[in-house]
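Example: EndoU domain-containing protein.
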Amino acid sequence: MVFFSFGSRKSIAGTIQYRWENVFKKKGGYLIGTSPAFDFSLFTVCSLIYSGDAKCQYNIDGYPLAVTSFTQPCSSGLCLSTAYPVI
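Written out as structure tokens, the predicted fold is:
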């Protein structure tokens, strides 16, 4: 994995660009200091209710953030293709 850029907001969330196995990920992100269970729950709810580019908006410690998520058709109906926080 090769990282190209990085940004963060008050040690709450970060965004990254990277290449993995010759595939370039233009935008991705992560939360800082939260549990994997919280992240999974937040991204699941946002993906089910507010799928799209920065559609799911929320605040952590008074800082506005959003989740971008996209779904795609798959053999079991609808599958999550990506979900990440946006700063």
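The CA atoms of residues 1 and 9 lie 23 Å apart.
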